[in-house]
Structures are given as C-alpha cells and as structure tokens.
C-alpha cells in the first residue's frame, strides 16, 4: 500500500517489474517460456492497457544458438529480437565461453595466420565470448498500439 501525501489516500500499485531466471535451461524450452511470457504481457496490455517491455539477457556464447533457434522456429513464433547492448566482462558458469582455434597444415595458411588481420579477428572473437547480451523481445506481427486500437474498436461494435 502506498500513501498519497497530498490527499492522504491510500492506493495500491500494480507490479510493474518481473524477473524470470532460468539458468541452464536448454534453448527450445527457453524460447517456449519467452513465448508464454510475451503472450501474457500482450494479454495484460490488451485487457488492462498495461504497457510492457520484455528483455532477455544471456551470455554472448549462447547468442548464436538463440538466434539460430529463433530462425528455425521463425514462422511459428512471431517473435522479433533486437540486440540492445552487450555488457563486458561477464562469465557465466551455465554457458562457458567457446574458443575457436583452427589448425591448418599448409605453409601458406600458417603464414596468413600470422597476419595482423587474422590475429585481431581471433582476439576480437575471444573477447566477445566474455559478454552478456541484452535483447529486446517484441511480437513480430502487430505493435501494441495496433492491438489496443483493434480491441477498442471491437468493444464499440458490441
């Protein structure tokens, strides 16, 4: 309960911040949870006009597999993600960084591996594995305002 100091009235605010922590949940189940949470948020927006923002934070070592999973389920999920920020440094015990080192046998390839561009790409790839990526998750079809307008118009016809 909150108190308005000017009027002396008590009021209750709705909960406006939720945290869901899923740890080492595998990617298909995580995407199922995201779909469920997104549909719940959309329902609250349509029924109570409660705006929302849904964000997903995960280690950058899992970003590629998450994006690949979204692409394979793309037509059925209707979910759009947008990378907002990457926080450095971050180490997750659930998803340890992967190191991509290639071994080549030819002499020409060995010389190219000593080049500045190759070494800098490998170093950048190494550093990127130690990040926490923040994605904004939104429905891919209609925006929130379009859905609210549709609901208001359908209520007028009834």
From TrEMBL:
GO terms (molecular function) for this protein are: glycosyltransferase activity
Judging by the UniProt lineage, the source's domain of life is Eukaryota
Keywords from UniProt, A to Z, are: Glycosyltransferase, Transferase
Q: What is this protein called?
A: GPI mannosyltransferase 4
Q: Which organism is it from?
A: Bactrocera latifrons
> What lineage does the source organism belong to?
Eukaryota, Metazoa, Ecdysozoa, Arthropoda, Hexapoda
């Amino acid at each position: 309960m909150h108190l308005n100091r000017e009027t002396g009235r008590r009021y209750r605010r709705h909960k406006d911040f939720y945290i869901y922590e899923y740890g080492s949940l595998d990617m298909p189940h995580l995407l199922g949870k995201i779909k469920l949470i997104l549909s719940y948020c959309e329902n609250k927006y349509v029924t109570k006009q409660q705006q929302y923002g849904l964000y997903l934070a995960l280690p950058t070592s899992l970003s590629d597999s998450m994006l690949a999973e979204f692409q394979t389920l793309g037509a059925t999920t209707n979910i759009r993600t947008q990378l907002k920020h990457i926080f450095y440094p971050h180490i997750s015990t659930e998803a340890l960084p992967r190191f991509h080192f290639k071994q080549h046998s030819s002499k020409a390839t060995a010389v190219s591996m000593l080049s500045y561009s190759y070494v800098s790409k490998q170093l950048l790839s190494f550093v990127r594995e130690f990040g926490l990526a923040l994605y904004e998750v939104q429905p891919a079809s209609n925006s929130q305002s379009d859905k609210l307008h549709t609901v208001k118009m359908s209520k007028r016809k009834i």
